[in-house]
Design brief:
Blueprint (H helix, E strand, L loop, with lengths): L5 E8 L17 H9 L1 E7 L5 H10 L3 H4 L33 H7 L3 E6 L14 E5 L10 E3 L11 H14 L6 E10 L8 H4 L22 H10 L1 H5 L14 H29 L5 E7 L18 H4 E2 L1 E4 L8 E9 L3 H8 L20 E5 L3 E6 L2 E9 L2 E2 L5 E4 L17 H17 L16
Parallel strand pairs: 1-6, 1-7, 2-10, 3-4, 3-6
Antiparallel strand pairs: 2-8, 2-9, 4-5, 7-9, 11-12, 12-13, 13-14, 13-15
Helix pairs in contact: 5-9
């Protein structure tokens, strides 16, 4: 009897699809991602269902939309007392999010060994939601001097950069004997800030003058609160969370091109880690029977339309890479372009590849057998629907009740950079009406986890 395939799910943080070679970027060096695309299948239009870290990762592991698996909340820290990693000592904190059986739990029940290495940022702990083993950092975004816990044990700080240490541990995991199929969730923190907390070779790798800017970036206009946000990008937790007075000042000539060049460098750092993993799969003979997925939790605006970071219903924040390779998957560089794939679809797809039945509480669809023409987006301010050609977004009037009229309506074929909002214009009325009905139907049909602290009441229109 053939053993079910191993599953290696690799996710990085804040990487938009446009900054990868196989998605058309002519400058960036991403041979690992490009190799996956050339050997497997690439989804041209893949989206984050909630373009913020914690909810996106919760959607991915739960197979449910964020309102159901977390109660609709956005980013939160680990549960428990500040600084406490050893959660088994504090059972009173329970399992605050992801209450239904998750992807790792279902694979675990099917005989898989389950493990997570790298950034976690889910409000329930790994052992609570189906992981046999875990190695996770204390700080979400800190590449040097990072503290880790392994399986809830005492914290320790390995030498060097945490990103490289995690890659070392992934290699070691793959090289150990495996007497059962495994599911490894490998979570890489870059290219999310802090951009400057990285090896110098990546920071100096790209010439800012050669960076191809998207047409919706206007360098003649300063971004709102530009210096503040540039410091957030460069130093993150030291500046953004703590506002320490000794945070470095920006170089006098620092600009958006330099920032994006550093982002490119950290993207190549991610790719180098992915490349190490792919080579290890080759060397160990695991490649033949291992499904490999590469994706991101969300994108990054990087100045497009004057915006920074993520969180809104715009292409730069929502569009993510999605590459798959392995047994049961299309091969030879196939590109899927007439389909919208999203993070909520990965759990049912991976269960199908593993020969495990998909539970009724999952919201996504198997990308291979039930392709979808739409994907749904939640944000803190409203909900949207993305098709291959359009984006339609309804704000909340009184959360979770939706407003009567859309805030955004874009024809992304005619206007791929979202510079001409058609909401209220009287243009493409029939398309807008159909998307409005579809979005309201989805909104009314997806339940809220009302038991979560602060969750809104499950009344929708």
């Amino acid at each position: 009897m053939t053993q079910p395939p191993n599953i290696l799910l690799v996710i990085c943080d804040q990487l938009r699809a446009f900054e990868i070679g196989c998605y058309g970027n002519p400058v960036i060096h991403t041979p690992g991602m490009d190799r996956l695309a050339a050997e497997g299948v690439r989804f041209e239009t893949a989206i984050s269902n909630y373009p913020v870290c914690m909810p996106a990762r919760s959607v991915l592991l739960s197979g449910q939309y964020n309102r159901t698996c977390t109660g609709g909340v956005s980013n939160v820290a680990y549960p428990g007392r500040p600084g406490d990693f050893n959660m088994p000592e504090y059972p009173e904190f329970g399992r605050p999010h992801l209450p239904d059986p998750t992807l790792p739990e279902l694979l675990q029940a099917a005989g898989y060994h389950t493990a997570v290495i790298g950034k976690w940022h889910v409000h329930s702990w790994p052992h609570q939601v189906g992981f046999d083993r875990y190695l996770i950092p204390r700080v979400h975004h800190c590449h040097s001097g990072q503290l880790f816990t392994e399986n809830g044990g005492m914290e320790f700080s390995p030498p060097g950069y945490s990103v490289d240490y995690e890659a070392d541990r992934v290699e070691a995991f793959l090289r150990q004997p495996h007497d059962q199929p495994f599911f490894l969730y490998y979570s890489i923190s870059p290219p999310h800030n802090p951009l400057r907390d990285a090896p110098e070779k990546y920071l100096e790798m790209y010439d800012p003058a050669a960076i191809p800017l998207r047409p919706n970036v206007d360098l003649s206009q300063r971004l709102k609160d530009q210096d503040y946000w540039f410091k957030v990008y460069r130093w993150d937790f030291r500046y953004y969370n703590l506002h320490l007075p000794f945070a470095e000042e920006l170089p006098a000539d620092y600009n958006l091109r330099q920032l994006i060049a550093e982002y490119y460098g950290l993207t190549t750092w991610v790719d180098d880690c992915l490349g190490r993993v792919l080579r290890t799969l080759d060397e160990t003979g695991l490649a033949e029977n291992t499904v490999v997925v590469f994706t991101s939790d969300h994108g990054d605006n990087l100045g497009s339309n004057g915006l920074v970071q993520k969180g809104g219903p715009n292409e730069e924040a929502v569009r993510i890479p999605l590459l798959l390779r392995g047994p049961g998957l299309p091969s030879g560089g196939q590109v899927v372009s007439q389909q919208v794939a999203s993070l909520v679809d990965l759990a049912p797809t991976l269960l199908s590849l593993a020969g495990v039945a998909c539970p009724a509480h999952f919201h996504g669809s198997d990308l291979l057998t039930s392709p979808q023409e739409t994907g749904f987006i939640e944000t803190g301010s409203g909900v949207g629907v993305r098709t291959c050609s359009h984006l339609y977004f309804l704000p909340f009037s009184n959360k979770p009740r939706l407003a009567d009229s859309p805030q955004f309506f874009y024809d992304l074929q005619a206007d791929p950079y979202q510079q001409h909002n058609l909401a209220g214009s009287g243009v493409q009325v029939e398309t807008a009406r159909a998307l409005d009905a579809l979005l309201r139907q989805w909104h009314a049909g997806i339940p809220w986890m009302t038991q979560a602290a602060g969750a809104p009441q499950p009344t929708a229109n």
